Amino acid sequence: MQIGCDVPLKISLIIPCYNEEQGIKRASRKILSSLDESNDDWEVIFVNDGSSDNTFEKLEEIAAVDSRVIVKSYQVNQGRGKALRVGFEAATGEIIVANEADLSWGNKIALRLSDALKKNPSVGVVVASPHLKKGGYRNVPLFREMLSVIGNKILCFGNSQKLSMVTGMTRAYRKEVLDSLELYSNRKELHLEIISKVQALGYKIMEIPAILKWTPERKAEMKNRKSSFPVKKLVLSHLAFTFAETPFLLVGSVGLLLLLFGALGGIYIVYLWATFGLNEGRPLIVFSVLLLLSGIQMLIFSFLASQNKQVRDGQVRLEAQIKRIR
Q: Partner of 3 at 20 to 30 A CA spacing, among 125, 145, 159, 251?
């Protein structure tokens, strides 16, 4: 779809909310005020992800005074991924933007993302990244910043489109891109699932620099929530994603190293045999054989994992074709 930057469009802004009672009215005012600067027709879909406070009531009050606001809600907290999927299903815009409820990316990031998508008709997804030049982190706890920086370095290793940010929620999508995806994740793994499936379908992903900034109030709030932040679960799930996306680079490289060390051990054994210094009772022979066998096994395993990824990508393309037929 060819879209000019000056052509007004219907754009949907999806904002998941969980226990945002304290700041959601203030944030919504800033968001809606920033959208007044746009010529596009915006709808703002707040998704209440089973909040245990009065977030839903606050959202209803916001919707009562602004016709652009739509509220979706369910009683049990199920995670950001579920909230986004509910928002995606409700969205009617030609462009769909996902953003944080706390305005940690600034109140104009939705406009920047949608404008970038409009200016680049060959792009299917635009991602806000703090890891690009002119991007960055402000007032974010060092642990969270390092977790994001290191995590994204690992996750983007071997990425075909050379991305720098795959874990962030703040993105803009063309509706036809999201409509072609079958999404299943309920939690933050959804961000990775989308990137993987978008690339499998051959859509181009673009990044724009952005600054992730926590207000002092947000920093204090997140400190109180720290005990519920599933660090170990996220690390394990993200490592599993990295292996699934680049099995040969991760496991195959280890297999090649084992083969190399095993071969070097074999060469040394031949040298000792040629110089009559080989002691058959030494463990070097067994150790070298184990290295060679382990290397071969890991290479075979990485090859099978690569074949599995090709099958999964084919399944994604098949699912997209079925959705288009429907």
A: 159
